[in-house]
């Protein structure tokens, strides 16, 4: 596709309003139609009429679509767009179950359509710089990936628990950063806030390449934290995706003569480097990657097949928590 692409957006809630702003600011995109059966509570439609459903969006004559409706509606909306032959990016997760995610991915694949999933953390400058340095071998062999994603409950979420809303980011980024799918996962969840869905999860897993992983995710912490730590033979990278900062803690080469400290530390502490990296809004880069995929370069999008694979791990997290058993993938 060349020239300005006519983009339709369905879902004008907390995420949809940001997508509307970014689509309008993306070179080569023109936001020509918006839809939300619940109306436009954030006032983002501007001069555009607020259409009632995905079928009206399709009838507006769009080249591509962005889906930002609640997770429980992802499948039906995405399948309608696939049936109409509209390339689409769906906000994460791709659907509300692994089975539904596979149906969506297959619908777009079978029709040869561009299909993407909005895992915006992959566009975070800290994680992009981390992946580049890991690919360059700067950490040597990777041993462990640890993530912490904590904060207060977001009022925007009502249809899923913390696993499908937040932990899905960590599952996706861990497999991407480490370059390996999950082999097994074990998890525990809690329901502490009186809601139907879980609000805390701790999960431990093993990737197919032998890297061990740990995820701590919740909605009940009175401060916000978004941290990914990758430990390997040469030290550890710490990516803070709230600030977009990447720090490297090197294993030291200077031996300690203080025996108690040396024994306690194990490896010696070395230099600490906080990298100066360019920082752009991740959502803007995500939309540019989708635009480039529509123009023939899909190398930087999160594919729907990847989105479905992440949901398989998410379902395994919930199954493990329910059964008390480790789940193999």
From TrEMBL:
<dbReference type="InterPro" id="IPR000683">
    <property type="entry name" value="Gfo/Idh/MocA-like_OxRdtase_N"/>
</dbReference>
<feature type="domain" description="GFO/IDH/MocA-like oxidoreductase">
    <location>
        <begin position="128"/>
        <end position="237"/>
    </location>
</feature>
<dbReference type="InterPro" id="IPR036291">
    <property type="entry name" value="NAD(P)-bd_dom_sf"/>
</dbReference>
<keyword id="KW-0560">Oxidoreductase</keyword>
<dbReference type="Pfam" id="PF01408">
    <property type="entry name" value="GFO_IDH_MocA"/>
</dbReference>
<dbReference type="InterPro" id="IPR055170">
    <property type="entry name" value="GFO_IDH_MocA-like_dom"/>
</dbReference>
<dbReference type="GO" id="GO:0050112">
    <property type="term" value="F:inositol 2-dehydrogenase (NAD+) activity"/>
</dbReference>
<dbReference type="Pfam" id="PF22725">
    <property type="entry name" value="GFO_IDH_MocA_C3"/>
</dbReference>
<dbReference type="GO" id="GO:0000166">
    <property type="term" value="F:nucleotide binding"/>
</dbReference>
<dbReference type="InterPro" id="IPR051450">
    <property type="entry name" value="Gfo/Idh/MocA_Oxidoreductases"/>
</dbReference>
<protein>
    <submittedName>
        <fullName>Inositol 2-dehydrogenase</fullName>
        <ecNumber>1.1.1.18</ecNumber>
    </submittedName>
</protein>
<feature type="domain" description="Gfo/Idh/MocA-like oxidoreductase N-terminal">
    <location>
        <begin position="5"/>
        <end position="119"/>
    </location>
</feature>
